């Protein structure tokens, strides 16, 4: 697909054409199998910790959106995958340097050509987004979608860092919980149920 065809598919919401650019979900799940995964959220409270070495020790480090990393001591330095739901500027793209980008947002018009043609690009299916939205009774965050995806894989372990469900707000912006369309209390309860049912998942 060339860039012009991509722009047309994005404008016309041609999901089949956009999905043709994506690695199949089964391949992503296969890449997670057997891995110790660190999923790093953007809670401000993470900056007050010394979790960086633990994060970087994982087989696979996945960060979210603009992936702020104020210091290696708290956040680590590696980014293998980036779960994205927003446009990524050139400076952030260079700073984060992800090996794979996973576009998790249902808002396809935000998807850019550079992201869609990046190595190993993955486009999260709209059906999966809708199913989780129904389960949570609210639009899921990028972090929740990644937790759901990893939990459905055969990953050996999933460590969650920087997930306090907006209690300390986000390092990537100044909005409050009332200004974003997510149910953080509901997501917190959902994650706690997952942790209770799945010993692979640990929240730090």
TrEMBL record:
Keywords: Glycoprotein, Glycosyltransferase, Membrane, Transferase, Transmembrane, Transmembrane helix. InterPro entries: Glyco_trans_29, GT29-like_sf. The keyword Signal does not apply. Pfam families: Glyco_transf_29. GO terms for molecular function: sialyltransferase activity. It is found in: Endomembrane system; Membrane. One of its GO terms (cellular component) is endomembrane system. The keyword Ion transport does not apply. It is a single-pass membrane protein. This is Glycosyltransferase family 29 (Sialyltransferase).
